[in-house]
Amino acid sequence: MSLLIKNGLIVTSTGRFIGDVYVEGEKIKAVGSDLRYKADEIIDAAGRYILPGVIDPHTHLEMPFMGTTTKDDYKTGTIAAACGGVTTVVDFDIQNKGESIYDCLERKKGWAKDKVAIDFSLHPGIVDPTPEIIDEIKDAVLEYGTPSFKIFMVYDFRVDDETMIKLLKETKKYGGLVQVHAENYYIVKYMNEILAAENKLEPYNHALSRPVIAEEEAVSRAIKMVELTGSRIYIVHLSSMRGLSKVKEARDQGLDIFAETCPQYLLLDDERYKEPGFNGAKYVMSPPLRSRENLTALWTGLRTGDLQVVATDHAPFDFNGGKDMFGKDDYKKIPNGAPGIETLLMLLHTEGVVKGRISLERMVEVLSTNTARIFGLESKGEIAAGKDADIVIFDPDRKFTITQSKLHMNVDYTPYEGMEMRGMPYLVYSRGRQVAKWQDDHVEFTGQEGWGKFVKRAPFKGF
Ligand code: DUC
Ligand code: ZN
Ligand code: ZN
Prior knowledge:
binds dihydropyrimidine-2,4(1H,3H)-dione; 25% strand; 13 helices
């Protein structure tokens, strides 16, 4: 199959121009003006943008957590992703105790097979760092194609500083990257005890239990370990101004510190926890939503380059029968997480580009190009000859009101209900195959379950 997309505004991380994209099979063959290839299908993209497919490097599909499991599996989660313009996900693959990295990867690949609708990769999550696991890092980076490893500094399955140092040292040897959930466990524990003693157990207290200093301290400690080992680190879901200032300071020093934020930390503030009844539980995620000044600082960080990636931390739990079943009487038992995989691009375009907070080029950079480079997705992240034909033809003027019933995520709410969007995907392609299309008043899935492939990623090559 060949495809010629004509007269769209092609956007890269460094510029934009009106032109054509020619796709043969699964690859982009040519990008330029007035291309004259014969093609099986010709699409007129005049008035529309031609963007690289979005890469979401932070998802929790079908993940057992806090006594339940996230609601999207590889089928529903990747169908929703495709409808939102996401054409690659890198999902967390959290190790079971005693399980080798290889077995852990094969286990999750098995769940994805026949279900996954777009390309995917996995980040092994290290929770049981035995010497055998540390020895396996080399193969994970160089053989399995999974060069990034997630660790938690908080939760019962956190790793200690000694383990973090070992992982940084080992990953550095082969071009691996450690990703950190940075919150200080003991600060959270202390706050939980104080709040429990005062019988403060409603959802709002979730935010009080995880103050910004918990993030600031953990980010700062992780950075010190990078300074010590000369390795590199990627901070996931950065939520605070104080955390960001530590990242900025370290980057100014020349350290290899990368950081991601998520739409929820850019757009929603901690007032949400005060919504009537138990509604605040919808926003119980870790780290929690922050006060307004933090949101402003994160937008600045995104614009200036101190933050390199926007991802979702997609961890959906139903409100009814999920959040309320476990945590009605105690915020600590509310499953942490919120849905977001489908709304990533529309939110960043509307709230970032349309509102003038970031440029279109910067949006492409933080949603695709940087993500591909940091995580070794060499065939993804750009509209360029030789890359996979993962393409979003985007209608910048299309209006859409976010509502759960018009989205595909397998969850009974969206944190963005009622928000007015400007700009939506019109057509989405995964390796040259159409996977989603705007129809009437929403985007519909037009792809095929099982189409997605596991993508081997390359070791880190500098950024
Ligand atoms: N934070 C969440 O809110 N959910 C999943 C895991 C995490 O770290
Ligand atoms: Zn996390
Ligand atoms: Zn997460």
